[in-house]
Amino acid sequence: TASLVGYTNAGKSTLFNRLTEAGVYAQDQLFATLDPTLRRIALDDDTGLIVADTVGFVSRLPHELVAAFKSTLQETVEADLLIHVIDAHSPQRAEQIAEVEAVLREIGAAEVPVIEVFNKIDLVAEAAARSDRDEDGTVQRVWLSAVTGDGVTLLREALTERFRGDVVAGRLALGPADGRLRAMLFEQGAITAEYHGADGGWELDVSLRRREYERLLKREPSLA
What is the pLDDT, as a whole number, of residue 198? Predict the structure, then answer.
């Protein structure tokens, strides 16, 4: 799952519509999005990705408002990746980025991996669609226009790269008493093949996202 986050009016819903071909309400006004909207898209390698559009953050978001939008913000905390949509044309761009990062810390999402999307390049003189990579070659920032679609392909490519390299796969041996864990893995769609063991247990070929694997390790330390 990837959750779109950002300051209000940064263009999250417009980008959401562009990525998913959805018809989500998108207007230049405060809190145009109030409820989380989820859509499934297929990335360039046919990986399935759930994209969530969330409420826009504002300066000094009150604690009561954070509580009121808890169901919306929960999509952010539980996401595998955050797509931080930034208004590249805003004169308060730096302040808005800081405010969003502060809210992410407040709701417990500061450790979720992030790709920054500098949106509205159609309004910025001499700006062009591009991807910025870190020293390891990972895309950290994409410059695009959700309105014109310029650069959206670069974002899709960045998402494909991120999730292609974020899979943990291997064979797992479970004993007869591990039926609950086996059922949990089936629920997550993590089991790609199953073989019955001589002791009444199972050998499972599993494939799941690294973040889900890390969550599973916290619940089942014996898997490490």
Answer: 81
